[in-house]
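Help wanted!
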Amino acid sequence: MNYFEVFGLPKRLNLDLNSLEKSFHELSRKYHPDYFTTAPAADRQRALQMTATLNDAYRTLRHPVRRVEHLVEIEGFKPDGSKVPKSFLMEVFEINEQLDEAKSGSASKEQIAALRQEIEKRAAGFESQLQTASTEWDKLDASCASDADRKQQLTRLTEILSESSYIRNLQRELEETS
Amino acid sequence: MPRIVGIDLGTTNSLVAIVEDGKPRVIPGPDGSDLVPSIVYFEEDGSVLVGNPAREKMVEKPKHTIFSIKRFMGKGLTDVKNDLPLLPFEVSPASETIIRLKVFGREYTPPQISSFILRELKKNAEAALGEEIVNAVITVPAYFNDAQRQATKDAGRIAGLDVLRIVNEPTAASLAYGLQERRQGTIAVYDFGGGTFDISILKLSEGIFEVLSTNGDTHLGGDDIDEQLIRLVLSEAKLPESTPHLPAIRKAARAAKEVLSSADSTDLVVDALGYRRNITRQEFETLIAPTIERTLKSCRQALQDAGLQPSAVDEVVMVGGSTRIPLVRNRVHSLFGRTPHTDLNPDEVVALGAAVQADILAGGKRDMLLLDVTPLSLGIETMGGVMSKIIPRNSTIPASASEKFTTFVDGQTSVKVHVLQGERELVSDCRSLAQFDLKGIPPMPAGLPLIEVKFLIDADGILSVSAQEQRTGQYQSVAVKPTYGLTDEEVERMILESFEHAEADIEAREVIEARNEADRVLRATEKSVEKKEFAELPADEQVGITSAANQLRETVKLADHRAIREATERLDQATHHLAEVLMNASIAEKLKDKRVREIE
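Answered by r_m:
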């Protein structure tokens, strides 16, 4: 299932969210089960299925990370054991330990604030990396680049995703602390 | 199209409403009151009184007068064990997965008790409108889980209603407000009722009501505020929870609470105990402040989930009787930094909204559309008792997700799946929704079968499951056993029982239902034959359709449900091909060829 096609879009990562919302609303007005209450059972079922798919597609594409994950999936790309650098893992590990301290209540307000800043800084870093890599992908896709180039860029996107997932976990943990 | 009513099945009061001439109105009962108290009183012979007459029995016959049954919907014994000490009801020990209340030796589940209230509303609507009512939209708290929604639907079925949609209360309220309010902007609906609390953040644009996030607590409402006053009296009068004076104390507590919404102080009086004490609004507010704080916590979470600051909300709408409490209004005002709307009657606005949604379903209002969300994440149990989320909370519904399962042992022919709802990581901290076995997997070496399971949450927020083995393409049987609630067979049995008790003529009902179905098919046919696709059909097919339709129009006049059903079936078959052609044509036109094949 290619969610980009649900909206008649090419597989590009830079999306205009306003126009995406607009077509989401337009398509909802056409297919929503509310408008098929009195229709035969088969039509009702179809309206339900189509709207579910439309909603799944919108939920996925609207979200910058889920959007990239979906692209990687529909491109049928399987990373060959993508490696997260050991040094990065060590850093995450260290932040995690500080978080545990904060959770147990032994950290001061200032320490927690500093921790938050540290995590947010990294999150912002990944966000901009993802943005750059996404723009790069769009250029490749538009220029009908070679399979090798596409594969390389998908590898890059996958790496950013898997590294940033560690940071997202830290963010979640931080939420629970505060 | 037969009429569709909107029903607010509340913890404290229930209402029925309908749209007439484009405007929703509440349908009053024969006593002239709009509100039917959600109270059911049982006589020894099993007959019941509902509403105001039942309320009069609360103090006198507490064991036989059931109130606030909504708090038990979709719950098991362990869920409600903290409430029971303060409630006069007798609960059967066999209540682990569904509460069974014992009245005069008979057992009643919450959907059955609720069905008495629904039946009363149905009766009121039928008397006022002068026609049989079978179709309804029923509201539920937005934060209701799958089991609670299903229980509400079951209640409707037992009451002889075809529940066309379950709508979330705050969203329904926004529809009622939307009629006269702004067309664009972000609104927050703060719904604090008798038993439940909901907050929903919505975005309005050109008639589309899109819920961005929702949060709440299905066990937080006016009843909890009463309970705080009750506990105050118990401790001051040095009485145990088991005191027989509990109903009188509850009545006094409610009265005092209501007075304190407008007065600065009042006397809390329980005549039977010779108890009297003055309570100031300030004392009352200190007592309930922690309860109000819990609602604000939900509001902050909903705002965060919507990615909004409180100041980004353009309007705040207050719904539910508990929003009459001044402290509630003040706290909500200061959280959002704006005066909340209280212009519509907080007791009626949900029912009015339900009627508007009913009107949309009936085809009356095509310019409005409600896009609601699922309040809780849906997940499945994975290795190590961890919940793996497959549909996150606040996803627009209908929503779906697919998961692939395989076998762990050679020749294994079934796989167990456990479905859950909740936000926590561990299965034990989430709400078990259902378990099922994927059966009939062709014997293969371990890990080779690939079973794709599709989870679908429909527009009512209720889950259904289907499965397909990928290598053989074979569909698997999925018999979902709900963890909490009634099985389909039990509901069927209760429907039959309810007919006996209501002395309804089953035969007559069958005829009405058969006629409704016939009506539906006829109308759909009438619409289809006007399309150009009909004219393009072979002549014999056209004749087949028109004659089957004419035959049905004649048969409907007979009071023979079997004949009507047969004639309906014949028309349905005659139009089968046409329906396909029309559906394909409409899809092709709307979605353009290639995209559609993907959607399907």
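OP: Thanks! One thing I noticed: DSSP finds 17 helices and 28 strands in chain B.
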